[in-house]
């Protein structure tokens, strides 16, 4: 089913008496695809001609439902044995965000995901991260290991020098308290990069 038809079906539920095809096509033209339209901020959606509050709410509800389903597929499961599923969830969570988001996935001794939390939200190209806060939260949750996640709105998931330095700082801080940093994953619309796979951890 083409992306615009999926959007039509979502919009029809919100606008049952209207012709939603032109609006669906405008959304695709503006944002590029079904997933991108769902992930667009409400204020950007509101700029599209013909859309109203009910249609925006419908799109954001579908996005929230998709994220909840993705979370259910990885929560309370050993994440290292279902890595592809975890990466897909990470990309769904923040891969299309227009600002940088820094999240931490907290794992227990069996590498089961016990929490996924946003630690910081930044600008289009920077998010301040504080190693002490990351480790403090891990201790509060009783986590034995963490996986760090953030996005690059530019589309290029290649880690910056700052990303690498911050990752090493957190690894060293966590190691002093017997908390292991399994990986740092950077996601974007274009793909992802794993520090571990790149030999940076």
Notes on the structure:
Helices cover 46% and strands 17% of the residues. By secondary structure, it is an alpha+beta fold. A 5-stranded mixed beta sheet has the order 2-1-3-4-5, with helices on both faces. The chain has 2 domains: 3-67, Orthogonal Bundle (DNA polymerase, domain 1); 76-194, Cytidine Deaminase, domain 2, CATH 3.40.140. It starts with a helix and ends in a 7-residue tail after the last strand. The protein has helices spanning 3-14, 21-31, 34-39, 42-45, 53-74, 83-94, 131-141, 161-175; strands spanning 101-107, 113-121, 145-151, 180-187, 192-194. It contains 8 helices and 5 strands, in the order ααααααββαβαββ.
Q: What is the CATH architecture assignment of the largest domain?
A: 3-Layer(aba) Sandwich
CATH class placement of the largest domain: Alpha Beta
**With helices defined by DSSP (H or I, 4 residues minimum), what is the helix count?**
8
* Helix content range: 40-55%
Principal-axes geometry comes out as elongated
Distance between the ends: 41 Å
Provide the residue-averaged pLDDT: 88
Query: Structural class of the secondary elements?
Result: alpha+beta
- Determine Rg (CA atoms, Å): 19 Å
Give the neighbour order of strands across the main sheet: 2-1-3-4-5
Taken together, the total number of domains comes to 2
Strand content: 15-25%
Written as H for each helix and E for each strand, in order along the chain, the element string is: HHHHHHEEHEHEE
Number of strands: 5
Largest sheet: 5 strands, mixed
The stretches of 5 or more residues where confidence is low (pLDDT under 50) are none
CATH topology of the largest domain: Cytidine Deaminase, domain 2
- The CATH superfamily label of the largest domain reads Cytidine Deaminase, domain 2
């Amino acid at each position: 089913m083409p992306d615009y038809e999926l959007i039509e079906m979502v919009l029809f539920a919100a606008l049952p008496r209207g012709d939603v095809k032109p609006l669906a096509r405008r959304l695709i033209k503006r944002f590029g695809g079904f997933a991108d339209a769902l992930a667009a901020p409400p204020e950007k959606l509101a700029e599209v001609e013909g859309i109203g509050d009910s249609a925006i709410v419908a799109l954001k509800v579908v996005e929230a439902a998709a994220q909840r389903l993705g979370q259910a597929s990885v929560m309370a499961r050993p994440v290292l044995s279902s890595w592809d599923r975890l990466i897909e969830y990470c990309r769904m969570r923040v891969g299309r965000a227009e600002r940088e988001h820094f999240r931490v996935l907290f794992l227990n001794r069996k590498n089961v995901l016990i929490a996924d939390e946003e630690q910081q939200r930044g600008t289009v190209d920077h998010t301040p991260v504080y190693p002490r806060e990351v480790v403090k939260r891990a201790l509060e949750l009783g986590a034995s290991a963490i996986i760090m996640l953030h996005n690059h709105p530019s589309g290029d998931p290649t880690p910056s020098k700052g990303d690498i330095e911050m990752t090493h700082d957190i690894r060293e801080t966590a190691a002093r308290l017997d908390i292991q940093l399994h990986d740092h994953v950077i996601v974007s619309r274009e793909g992802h990069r794993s520090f571990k796979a790149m030999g940076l951890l």
